[in-house]
């Protein structure tokens, strides 16, 4: 890929990326089905174990480790991965049809977390517009209120402050409270118009109907306790800690807004990658450059951009979060980056230079975008 004969010009790169920007109306149905099947199987396994323990006359104490493992799996895998599809919906990338995108996105991935796609979209587009700006980036301001971000940080201190401490009830509460202000209610942020295909009245009716049907069904079948045990408990314990770690990985210790340096790309062990960076979270650099590329075309986009010299020479690929999968690769882990001075800090000290090739400032077309543009944001700038 490094041969200059294979390199793409700027125009050629844009043309190749444009081909990858269209979502479809079928890929994510299969994705959602798979994720909900994993959740259902996890709950079914725990319930089967419970009934076997009771019917066999064993002490319910044997159920404790099984239940705790179930909470971890649901929070770290099922809830965490479904929440990533809220992010995908906010870019109109869950389904090609915008109305379907928001209806399915709300019913299947936002309402279960007590959020609304259009609410999240407002704050998330603000994050893209002001990425890593401590005074304007809604994500950065929200996370700073939850926990001070002081980087670089030693690996030992990181594990204590940003991993172990995040499982404490008061930290889970402050994180969820910040997310609630971001997702459950409309953010007090710069106006974003023409981004909600449902409209406030239809959205309100859909939201009320969802919770009436959900809790009515749970009450009718006597499953309210199961809902608390298998959805609410993971939601207020393991789930927020997992999301927090991903947000730190994306933008922690990266206080600039360069196109190739505002975030990172990730490889590493399969399990670690699928937990912390599922779907389009795996290459957050490309996501910020071209947010309308659907998650399932992200690897293709990375292959294209590796033929574009400014990206290839500047992007940092992490070989895992905590553990390096391939020592021979020479790529750092996320922890390595968080424990060292950031490129922005090095540049400020005159120890590193950066190529100036700003996609955000110079891009004259909205790659993959279509339809109406708001006065504040272009479609796709999310």
Please characterize this protein's 3D structure.
The protein is mainly α and about 375 residues long. The protein has 18 helices and two strands. The protein has helices at about 10-20, 25-55, 65-90, 100-110, 115-130, 140-145, 155-165, 170-185, 200-220, 225-235, 240-250, 270-275, 285-290, 300-305, 310-315, 335-340, 345-350, 360, and strands at about 265, 315-320. It has a two-stranded parallel ribbon with strand order 1-2.
Count of DSSP helices?
18
In round numbers, the mean pLDDT is 85
Structural class, from secondary structure content? mainly alpha
**If you compute it from the alpha carbons, what radius of gyration comes out, rounded to the nearest whole angstrom?**
22 Å
Strand content of the residues, in percent?
A: under 5%
The tally of strands reads 2
Which sequence of strands runs across the widest sheet? 1-2
The percentage helix is: 55-70%
Query: How would a crystallographer describe the biggest sheet?
Result: 2 strands, parallel
Tags for this model:
single chain, 382 residues, mainly alpha, two-stranded parallel ribbon, 2 strands
Question: Quick summary of this structure?
Answer:
With 382 residues, this protein is mostly helical. It contains 18 helices and two strands. Mean pLDDT is 85; it is low at 352-382.
Give the arrangement of secondary structure elements.
Elements: H1 10-18, H2 27-55, H3 63-90, H4 98-110, H5 117-129, H6 138-146, H7 155-164, H8 169-183, H9 200-220, H10 224-235, H11 238-251, E1 265-266, H12 270-276, H13 284-289, H14 298-305, H15 309-314, E2 317-318, H16 334-338, H17 343-348, H18 359-362
Parallel strand pairs: 1-2
Helix pairs in contact: 2-3, 3-4, 3-5, 3-10, 3-11, 6-8
């Amino acid at each position: 890929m490094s041969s200059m004969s294979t390199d793409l010009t700027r125009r050629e790169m844009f043309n190749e990326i444009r081909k990858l920007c269209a979502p479809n109306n079928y890929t994510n149905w299969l994705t959602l089905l798979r994720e909900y099947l994993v959740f259902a199987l996890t709950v079914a396994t725990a319930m089967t174990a419970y009934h076997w323990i009771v019917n066999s006359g064993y002490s319910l104490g044997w159920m404790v480790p099984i239940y705790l493992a179930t909470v971890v799996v649901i929070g770290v895998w099922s809830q965490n991965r479904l929440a990533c599809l809220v992010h995908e919906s906010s870019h109109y990338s869950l389904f090609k049809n915008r109305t379907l995108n928001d209806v399915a996105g709300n019913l299947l991935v936002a309402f279960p977390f007590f959020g609304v796609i259009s609410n999240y979209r407002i704050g998330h587009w603000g994050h893209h517009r002001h990425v890593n700006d401590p005074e304007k980036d809604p994500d950065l301001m929200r996370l700073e209120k939850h926990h001070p971000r002081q980087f670089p940080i030693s690996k030992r201190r990181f594990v204590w402050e940003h991993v172990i401490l995040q499982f404490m009830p008061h930290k889970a509460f402050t994180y969820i409270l910040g997310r609630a202000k971001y997702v459950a209610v409309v953010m007090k942020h710069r106006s974003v118009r023409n981004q909600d295909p449902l409209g406030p009245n239809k959205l309100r009716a859909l939201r009320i109907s969802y919770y009436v049907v959900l809790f009515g069904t749970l009450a009718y079948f006597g499953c309210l306790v199961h809902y608390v045990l298998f959805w609410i408990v993971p939601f207020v314990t393991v789930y927020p800690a997992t999301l927090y770690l991903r947000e730190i990985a994306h933008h922690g210790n990266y206080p600039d807004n360069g196109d190739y340096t505002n975030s990172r790309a990730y490889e590493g062990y399969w399990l670690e990658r699928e937990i912390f960076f599922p779907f389009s979270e795996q290459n957050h650099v490309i996501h910020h450059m071209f947010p309308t590329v659907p998650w399932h075309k992200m690897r293709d986009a990375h292959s294209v951009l590796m033929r574009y010299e400014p990206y290839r020479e500047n992007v940092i690929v992490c070989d895992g979060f905590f553990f390096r999968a391939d020592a021979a690769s020479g790529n750092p882990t996320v922890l390595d980056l968080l424990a060292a001075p950031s490129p922005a800090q090095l540049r400020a000290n005159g120890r590193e230079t950066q190529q100036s090739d700003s996609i955000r400032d110079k891009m004259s077309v909205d790659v993959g975008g279509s339809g109406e543009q708001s006065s504040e944001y272009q479609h796709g700038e999310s």
